[in-house]
Amino acid sequence: MAVWLITGASTGFGHELAKIVLERGDIAVATARRPEVLSSLAAKYPQAADRLLTLKLDVTEEQDIVDAFAAAKAKFGRVDVVANNAGFLTMGELESVPAADGRAIFETNFWGATRVSREAVRFFREDNPAGAGGRLLQFSSILGFQGWPGVAYYAATKFALEGLSETLASELDPAWNIKVTIVEPGPFATNVNKGDSQWAPTHPAYDRPELPAAVFKKDLAQLIPPGDARKGMEAVYKLASLEQPPLRFPLGKEAVAAARAKMSAFLADVDKYESWSEGLERDA
């Protein structure tokens, strides 16, 4: 029976994952900025009341994070898996989105995720039973390795989280038994085009319907995401049980195809311009 701490459990991936955890007989510490919205979990799974703890956790508040881990330990004695999922999406061309809004999305998606990561690693090492370690699932995105028009700040937060997570994974002492996996979902039916995301007013220079961000905005409004969030989180649940999980986990056929295309294009550039790096060494 694993103990899961899930951030951003009120909607989308986090909510689906919490339901799966409870249905599989595990323990869910479900957290959200407004914990009252998690009441539906308790109502849906009354038989799991002793395996569900709902807590307030705003990832922009350091004390909320510390308190959530402490509450999980007080009730269940440990935390085995942290699903670092909380985040939001603000869209618009880079010149359209106010800098303050860009900083706000970084404060949640990057700095908030970083705060959770730091506390998770500390907790796994120092508060869990000796040698138990833990699994840290970092929820990134297809946009964590491929930029699209209209999502510069969001993509930047996910690129940054991927760099931080890869570096963190390389720093950990293997004896701690802490595993880090970056989850990179493609388009899934969550809330991304149902009001949870917002577009900044268009900068006049980009006010033409044929420009890339405008096309993306139109396509997104009409998009029926191919991915089933429930099925996606079932794969993530399975991922957490792997003895040697991957560092990166593209989730969904679109994400897998995008990863292959990105790597292919990158390697093509490497091959094309490899000769430019010849002879750049310092003279003896």
From TrEMBL:
Pfam families the record matches: adh_short (PF00106)
Keywords for this protein: NADP, Oxidoreductase
Listed transmembrane segments: none
Full protein name: Uncharacterized protein
Any one GO MF annotation of this record: oxidoreductase activity
PROSITE patterns: ADH_SHORT
Domain of life, per lineage: Eukaryota
InterPro entries: NAD(P)-bd_dom_sf (IPR036291), Sc_DH/Rdtase_CS (IPR020904), SDR_fam (IPR002347), SDR_oxidoreductase (IPR051911)
Family per record: Belongs to the short-chain dehydrogenases/reductases (SDR) family.
